[in-house]
């Protein structure tokens, strides 16, 4: 009885081995097409806003503040009065200067008459040459004193004008450091600050690599600054909201920073409603105004490993092939690739985890009819 058990087991094994192996299960994937289409290249940078004009308001003469003519934080116009300083001392100084000028005019007029009279008498021998020389010296001295008196009047008028402090530009004024009654002067520091608001500037750093890429392969031509400036500049604020106004490039530095390897750049942004303020950090988006052609693959087709980014394509014979790619800008659900694939190639977008290069698969288009889910091959 014990001998029968091994015999039965052997017979069962022979019958099982004589049967045919089941065919491997079919692997189904979904593919999409590599497309070549026009797009507007764009790049993003982190920038900081600054005022085009940032003015420190200071007193140019000493005296007590008598009035403050603005509300802190308001927009003031160029020429608007901001402060007044007690002018009594400077009114008196101007009056003295004008009196001295009148005296100098009288002295100069008398010296001028004596000089002319001496020129008439000298040929007649009525006066000596020494006397004529004295008359000439007196006239020249009177002329000099007259000019000095005129300069004193001008200086007194200027100092008097400084007792009224006006806004040099149109902009938003800051907090007043000085109060009415304070003694202020050239050494008392800033009274307040004033910044321009429209346009406002965005300052950011462009990498040296980006700068060279902009120049292109032809390094023998002159830099076309106007072409560099023909860029649309938009901003994205810290809360993710896109600022509606479009700006333009207006400055590139004349050197690359040796420490950071970047080139300073600046854009002018319209700010008609004063929504943007200096010091804000923003995302600066540069975009060309002309279209260029580029290759795009679906973002879902891109994978990354130790060798870099790559896509899997289904080629002749339904064979899976790997293509290494260098990624560029993103556009919605697509990403630009620099070589590695060609327009019309079929890249796998679904079922990537079930396939590997060299496998044979069944592919359907992403826009085609529904098919059964991809299944792994039989072990």
UniProtKB/TrEMBL annotation:
It is a lipid-anchor. Keywords: Coiled coil, Signal. Residues 223-289 form the Multidrug resistance protein MdtA-like beta-barrel domain. One of its GO terms (biological process) is response to antibiotic. Residues 55-186 form the Multidrug resistance protein MdtA-like barrel-sandwich hybrid domain. Residues 94-163 form the Multidrug resistance protein MdtA-like alpha-helical hairpin domain. It is found in: Cell inner membrane. InterPro entries: MdtA-like_b-barrel (IPR058626), MdtA-like_BSH (IPR058625), MdtA-like_HH (IPR058624), RND_pump_MFP (IPR006143), YknX-like_C (IPR058637). Residues 94-152 form a coiled coil. Residues 295-362 form the YknX-like C-terminal permuted SH3-like domain. One of its GO terms (molecular function) is transmembrane transporter activity. It holds the Pfam family HH_MFP_RND. One of its GO terms (cellular component) is plasma membrane. Belongs to the membrane fusion protein (MFP) (TC 8.A.1) family. This is Efflux RND transporter periplasmic adaptor subunit. Residues 1-18 form the signal peptide. Its main location: membrane. Gene3D superfamilies: 2.40.30.170, 2.40.420.20, 2.40.50.100, Helix hairpin bin.
